[in-house]
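Model: Ready when you are.
Researcher: Fold this.
Model:
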Amino acid sequence: MPEKITYFEYAPRPWQREALARLEKHRFAVIVAHRRAGKTEAVCLRLLMAAMNMDREHPSPLFAYVAPFLNQGKAVAWDRLKYFARNLPKLKTHSGAKKRFKMTKSGKVKRGSAFTSHILNKKTRKVKRDNRHPQYVDKTNEAAVKQMLPYS
């Protein structure tokens, strides 16, 4: 997998740098600082960088900003997240592929069977019965299909 590089217009203050370094080692942290110290700024940046540099694809990782109330969280963090994410690249999902393929929990790509819509008189019962069930995309084509479905 190619190395992911993320650029943000942000230079953390010394105490923020120390807090972010501690977050690298521990899952949770409590930051006690005055009202306009930049706690939200630092945590929003950390949240975006963790989401962008995540190696795992399946199951999809979840990230959250937790605040005492929904409106408070939206008012405090949403504008900062939008500001930092404004220049990030957007990947487009291929509209034909999203209708035809689904990802399984194990990371395989599921597809429908061919030869099931018409001229069924010539086909044996066994062929028609076997075609009812979904099949998996061959390993040679799996990478191309996954590239068309970047968010699944």
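Researcher: Now this one.
Model:
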Amino acid sequence: MILRYLLGISFMLILHITITPILSFAQVNRAAPPITQDITVDEKLGDILDLSQSFLTSKGDTITLADLADPQKPVLLNPLYYDCPILCNLVLDRVADGIAALDWTPGKEFTIVSFSIDSHRNTRRRTKSDGASN
């Protein structure tokens, strides 16, 4: 009796394991979210950046791209959100992986400039969260 019961349970378990993957389908949403429908990318390959563009540091100082980069070397601009839990780490990891595969060395043959594109936070708040003094 117990053997018949265990065989029945085993059969049901095997049936469940083999049929469930066939009946389970992932739903893929290929449609872009409505908020992104008006976003475009204007590629300007080969254009030269205006190195006089200014940015604010976490301490509130103004700095230009010319202060950060040698105009004779390529620059990798790495826009990031100041405070993002997942995407920024993925971007930084992939950039690091890509750089590791290069024969060039950052700072020697090219420059990497990472900057925040989060305009909703002010410098004073960033400075305090960084632990820097004003």
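Researcher: Key takeaway?
Model: The beta strands are 54-56, 62-64, 75-80, 111-116.
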